[in-house]
Amino acid sequence: MSFLGVLQVFISLTLVLLILLQGSGSGLGSPFGGGGSGETFKTRRGFEKIIFYLTVFFIVLFALVLILVIVA
């Protein structure tokens, strides 16, 4: 496996972890309109904000590495 392949696997596993960390506390019914908290929007603060920005960064990084793998 090439360096880009190993890098892509690492980024993928990191993304899975970050996404799972974001979903903690939201409940299972939340993606389907449940949740019951009555809040439509929630301001991210502290650790949640860091996790959110890291997730966005790793998604962009994943896309760039994917394009490099396809081109190479």
UniProtKB/TrEMBL annotation:
GO CC terms: plasma membrane
Main location: membrane
Domain of life: Bacteria
Family: Belongs to the SecG family.
Location(s), subcellular: Cell membrane; Membrane
Transmembrane feature ranges: 50-71
Membrane topology per record: Multi-pass membrane protein
Keywords assigned by UniProt, alphabetized: Cell membrane, Membrane, Protein transport, Translocation, Transmembrane, Transmembrane helix, Transport
Any single GO BP term: protein secretion
Gene Ontology MF terms: protein-transporting ATPase activity
Protein name (Swiss-Prot/TrEMBL): Protein-export membrane protein SecG
The protein's role, per its UniProt record: Involved in protein export. Participates in an early event of protein translocation.
Pfam families, alphabetized: SecG
InterPro entries: SecG
